[in-house]
Every structure is written in C-alpha cells, then in structure tokens.
Amino acid sequence: MSIKLKSPRKVLVTGGAGFIGSNLVRLLVEQGVSVRVMDNLSTGYIKNIENLPIEFVQGNICNANLVQDAVDGIDAIFHLAAHIGNVKSLEHPQEDAQINVLGAVNLLEAARKAGVQRIVYSSSAAIFGELLTMPIAEDHPQNPDSPYGVSKLAAEKYMLTFAKLYNMTVICLRYFNVYGVHQRYDAYGNVIPIFADRLLMGKPITIYGTGEQTRDFINVKDVAKANFLAATRAQQADVYNLGSGFDITINTLASYCQEASGIKAVEIVNAPPRQGEVLHCRADISKARSDLGFEPNPDIRSGLQEYFNWFKKDRNI
Ligand SMILES: NC(=O)c1ccc[n+]([C@@H]2O[C@H](COP(=O)([O-])OP(=O)(O)OC[C@H]3O[C@@H](n4cnc5c(N)ncnc54)[C@H](O)[C@@H]3O)[C@@H](O)[C@H]2O)c1
Question: How many angstroms is it from 60 CA to the middle of ligand 1?
Fold first, then answer.
C-alpha cells in the first residue's frame, strides 16, 4: 500500500509542448504545480500550451548547459522529449540515439548535479520487441526490434542505474498506444489520427489483415494522471507498464471512430496483412494499479468522441 507523498512544487517537463507533454502540463497546472517546459518544438506546438501560466524554455535536451540551467530550482522532472517512433528511427538511427540516449544522460547528469531526486521517464512498450505472452507484464522479455526500442530501453537502464547510484526515485512508465487530444496526424501517424484524418476527409480507411488483431489504447488523460501519481506516490525507483488494461480489435476501433466522426458512409478497404505485424497486444497494469493507485477510464468511446471533437476544431472542419 503506497503512502501519498507531497506534490512537487516546481517541476520541469521536457517535451511539454508535445502531445502527451501538453496534457500533462495542463494537469500539473490544475494541481497547482509550478511548471517549466523545455522543448525544441521539433514535433511539438506552442499552441498546445498557450494561455497556460508556465515558464517556457525553447531548447534541445542535448545541450548540456541549457539543461543544467533548466533543472535549477526544480523538485521533480518529467522527461518526455524524444525522437519518436519505430519507423522514424529506422530512417534516422543516429539522431534517435543522440536524443533518446545522450539527451537522457544529459538530463540525468544535470539532475544529479542540481540535487533533483525524482524523475518520471516516459518509456515505451517498444522496448519489448516481439510479444510472447499476454497480457504483457513488466518482466516480459525485452528484445527490441527497432533502434527506437533500443534507445528507449537504454535510457530506462540509465535512469535505473542513476537511481541506484545516486539515491534518486526514478519511475519509468512504459506507454502502450496512447491516443487523445493534441495527437496530430503525421507521416508516421498512429492508427487513430489516421482514421480521423481519412474519415473526416470522406476518404476510405484501410484495415490491414482481418482487422481482428487487438490493441490496448490508453487515453492521454490517463497517461497524464499516471505521471502525476508516479511523482506523488511512488516509493522507490521502478518500472510500470501503462495501458488501459483492455484490448479492442481494429474492426471495433474503426466502427467506434465512424461513430465519433458522425460519418458512416466512408468505405472500409481491407488490405493484405503487414509483414511482422503483432496480432495481439494488451498491457498488464496490475502493478501500476496496486503501487500507484492507477485506474484508467475504460470508456474508449467517449475518449474517441472527445478526440474527434478536438480534431475537427484543430482542422477547422
Ligand atoms: N504517443 C505514444 O503512443 C507513445 C507511446 C509510447 C511512448 N511514448 C513516449 O512518450 C513521450 C512523448 O511522446 P508524444 O507522443 O507526446 O510525442 P510528441 O512528438 O508529441 O512529443 C515529444 C516532444 O518532445 C520535443 N522534443 C523532441 N526532441 C527534442 C529535443 N531534442 N529537445 C527538446 N525537445 C524535444 C518535441 O518538440 C515534442 O514537443 C516520448 O518520450 C515517447 O517516446 C509515446
């Protein structure tokens, strides 16, 4: 049973202008925490955090001097800035390692020198590679099959090693598929922004294989909540798998997205299965539940409705 610790007074959020970071920043502000964001705006948007009473530092986490200044006076760090995605990392492996590994070490060194003792690190289910058991618990074998998976795992190891060496409380949260407000469609897009884009443009959506493959989608608001719980309740350095704990098929997801878009007339095209695609994926979140008191909202349909409403507004549709 965990004991509630005091909330940090001043925090640094790296990558705070991004999809997940900006949702976390909003939650922290609502909780009365003073927030400094450090982001180079490579994939983040200032409009995600505009009008929030925060301090913003534009810069790269690979710049050691800048990071050292950014951790000054900070009680806890949420580290989200990263080079993101399996496909992108295959195209740019050096940049991926530079930002995700050396950037993380930079931050750890700065934290150590400044005496910051609590860090919540955004890790990823990509560290597991091929999925062998279901649901996926923290001790599932970790054999990443992309440079991104390797760099996120390497950063986790650095986090836990610094925790051990310097008595820091570092919590690694391994996110599964996150969706929600501020998630934009891009060239490396996730399935929900792709469906939203296609549906709202009136274009057919493509489902690879039978569509009976399953995924665990977690709402970004639950991810933000888990970060806050990790910062306020975790007693010691540890790793946690973070999903909704539920899985749904891609066919069901497509029908929920159609419902949320209000557009049912769009054609669904079935394409051959993608090579190497994982068939089933679901997080075992019992450890986050028992240690952190984490309880995700299971209502994906209302989460999708909120997302589609935001997506339309963002695109002026
Ligand atoms: N979205 C998901 O489904 C998912 C799943 C697993 C893990 N994650 C992890 O969550 C974190 C946040 O991801 P996101 O989905 O919000 O992506 P995002 O691209 O929206 O956010 C990343 C933010 O980091 C900033 N950034 C990138 N490189 C930087 C650098 N060198 N210096 C400073 N800032 C930099 C970007 O500008 C952006 O604002 C990442 O660490 C990612 O690995 C995300």
Answer: 12
Q: How confident is the model at residue 2 (pLDDT cuts 50, 70, 90)?
A: very low
Give the pLDDT confidence of 244-256 residue by residue, as tens digits: 999 999 999 999 9
If you measure from the C-alpha of residue 262 to the centroid of ligand 1, how many angstroms do you get, rounded to a whole number?
30
Domains located in the chain, CATH noted = 10-179+218-243 (3.40.50.720)
Q: 270 alpha carbon to ligand 1 midpoint, in Å? A: 31
Annotated catalytic residue 208:
no
CA 99 to ligand 1: nearest atom: 31
Tell whether ligand 1 has an atom less than 6 A from the beta carbon of residue 16: no
Q: 25-39: per-residue pLDDT in tens?
A: 999 999 999 999 999
pLDDT surpasses 60 at 192: yes
d(CA 282, CA 284): 7
